[in-house]
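Page 37, top half.
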Amino acid sequence: HDNFELHRGKRDPDDPRQESEESDRFWAGELAWIAAAPAPFTRAAAAERYDLDKLITWLVTVLFNGTGDIYQEAMIRDRTSELAAGRWTWIHWDHDMSFRTPPKNSRFGNKRDLLPYVLDNQREIRSPQQALMLRLVEEDPEFRTELVRRTTAALNHQLTPEYLESLVARYEETAKSLGVTDLDWVAKLRDYFAWRPDAIRTQLQKMLGAGASMAIELSAPEGTVLVDGFAIGARYAGTYPAGSILAAEVEPAFRDRFLRWEIESTPPIAAPAESPTLRFTVWGPTKIVARFRQ
């Protein structure tokens, strides 16, 4: 139907289809628009035309998975404006081809990890996705900060050790149920999940200027507090770059019983924070306790 305008990735030179020629013209027009945008190219300016939330989600996903085949980038626009407010967005697939052969599609087959590869400004610019990432990272500190924030939130709240271990167990159980007997990948996957988070944090420091990693602990009665917008149990542990923000808030139903946040940090906090919403700048290892009336 006519509600969507779709352009797939840049075509193979031998592809004769008319729609592929149209996509080539579209590609060239978008690359020209990005190149001509006034400097500094900002997140706000790009967001008027492109779905940057989807762009960041894509980068966090492929960064964790470490796949060597990252640029599946068919672009789509909803003429009814229901999807992405009518801006250009992406249809991504094959987020994890990490254990596929041949080696060029294997994890780190390009001999570099994902951020050094994606942000290599000496490579030929072949797509709007690549051009957007390069200009925004180079020219907009707010975009760099948002990349660090989103990646940190994913590692702390979604890609947790418990969740990753549950994936390994589920994949192994599924493989066995299908009669798969070669399970050497289980140990490889478990090992990858163990070291990957710290490797990503190192990339954030080297490529995006993130601060050194700091351990944060927060305790509160279970179900009473959100951290970075995520529900937590009675005890929460996360790792944040120095200089970044930890956002905590007491759930509305418990605010009448809330007393204060007690914060033990480096450097020390002079007095407890008494607002039910807390925006705490992390500079060193920190322990936070949410105190409530009984």
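Page 37, bottom half:
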Amino acid sequence: DLGLRSQGHRAVGTWAWQPWAKLRNRFSPHIGFNRADMSIGQRGDNGLSIGTVLNTWVWGVRDTLAWEPRADLSIDVGADYRGGQGTFSLDAPVQNAFEVGGFPRIESRPFDEQGKLQIDNTLQAHNAAVFATVSWTPFLGLSVIPGLRGENFRHIALPITLPDGTTTDENTREKTAVEPRLTFRWQIGNASVVKGAWGMYHQQVVGYLSSQSGGNPNLDLERAEHRIAGLEHRLTRTLNIDLQFYDIERDQLVQSSSKLIKNDDGSQTSERFNNGGRGRTIGMEVLLKHEITRDF
């Protein structure tokens, strides 16, 4: 049997005001809750089963200040903060020889008497960023929008008590990323728009992969470079087509590792995971849009 269940709730507020004629401010807080659980196995007490549960509270705020000094130029600067706390639980039958414990240690193994692996982790994330974008129209029909974002990722694994009675230490990981981006749109005549975008993006590794019990708390940020080119064209008065080609190159992806790391006391610990993975996605999207009319 396979069971998948998820639910999410979020509340968002927005406050916009204009202190001066060419200056606008937009303030948006949010809060939400997400739950996802999965179960795999046979029914009954004697069946083989694996279960995971992830409960996450998220909250944050974003503030953007927009200044338009000229008709062909606007500048946006701002800051945002995103926080969250998640509880991850794993219950799975595995061989007792599998070594798991607070990183970097090998003695503790979070198994019960029946040989089941049981892990409960509480993780916190606090991400703060500043950003700036410039929208420039050098001539009629062309818009160029360069941007820059700097973000600090802070991830905290709270202490947990293992079945052998020992307690792991609190582990804090902090990473910083700078992400340049560029977008353009070029209106050609009355029927066509050529567009494109390029940008760097980072993602923090969270959950079981970066936990002290069973993961690697020293993992780096995963990284992706996005390249997009597209064309919008009006086929008829009510029918439009949107073509988009994309190329996404990823590196520093998390992958399994059998490498052994030597500890200060001379013992060895399995690395379990590292950032040696790479990937690439190339594709195309076609969207056909029909304007809303009285008959359609």
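Margin note: The chain has a mean pLDDT of 84.
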